[in-house]
Amino acid sequence: MTALIDKFGRKHDYMRIAVTDRCNLRCQYCMPEEGVKALNHVNILSFEEILSVVKVAASLGVRKIRLTGGEPLVRKDLEKLIFMISQVEGIEDIAMTTNAIHLAERIDDLQAAGLNRVNISLDSLNADKFRELTRGGDLDKVLKGVEAAIDRGLEPVKVNAVVIKGFNDDEIADFIRWTIDTPIQMRFIEYMPIGDSLVWKDGYFPLEEVRKIAESIAPVIDVVGVKGNGPASVFKLAGAAGTVGIIHPVSQHFCSSCNRLRLTADGKLKPCLFWQKEVDIRPYIHDEQQLDNVFRDVLNLKEEKHQMTEELQGEKRTVRKMSQIGG
């Protein structure tokens, strides 16, 4: 086995797989109100096709798989795919990013199939504001999903909030206080300019303020060695059951340590969330050697870093919505 190491020396052992481009919410920073025109069923990778890609990825050193969307739980029989992936030699961790609307009702089957962890997207603890942002989402269902994940021991249970100036930055203290009695990793993420339009053009909020807000609540302790914390810097309030993570994908990018590749629902292998570059793997899906070569070709396309803060020509940066890439 030859590891997936790019020309900048980064070893890739993590792949994010979008199992669908459909979603049961319409979050304002992710897609327009009318949604994004969904792919035809025949253009979505089948479970068997995804499995073929995972097997080759695992043979090249990929150890962690994260299932994304759209919303992965709108994909019928997702538990079947999770079980299939769990049987692949070399795969050590299967996680899922979800809006958790349907998580509580399916979590037992998902865990039995082999799901290890979940990241739950939740940008407001105010029911009315959550409904506004998601264009109809039910906060109570999401909170029940968080509770179910904690009860089933899917550790660490991560809750992701995209901080948007003027919209939910006034809730940061509430999110942090949530961790006092709740064993979650509350993660604050910078608003990323992905896609061909921005809802909040002035939505950037400096995440350095998050720690200051935490320190105003209680003494803060830095935490290291958190399982699966990825690019987050993590701390906790003294005596708290949970932790707080801060992720700066834009202002303090972690490109130098990036270890991930992305597979879109329509079969495009992407080396980076930001750049338009991608390779269609479908012509090679049943040929392991060809797929092996495609993985290496994609690595050669990977840039040293993204340039989200810079003005670029349209042909360089992706024009896909976040829901079409998988985050």
Task: Report what the structure shows.
With 327 residues, the chain is of the alpha/beta class. It has one domain (14-325): Aldolase class I (TIM Barrel). The chain has helices at residues 47-59, 78-86, 103-113, 127-134, 139-151, 172-181, 208-217, 288-301, 322-325; strands spanning 14-18, 64-68, 93-98, 117-121, 157-163, 184-190, 220-223, 233-237, 243-247, 260-263, 268-270, 279-280. It has a twelve-stranded mixed sheet. Helix 3 (103-113) runs parallel beside helix 5 (139-151). The protein is globular. Mean pLDDT is 88; it is low at 309-315. Its EC number is 4.1.99.22.
Any key phrases for this structure?
alpha/beta; TIM Barrel; 327 residues; GTP 3',8-cyclase; twelve-stranded mixed beta sheet; 9 helices; globular
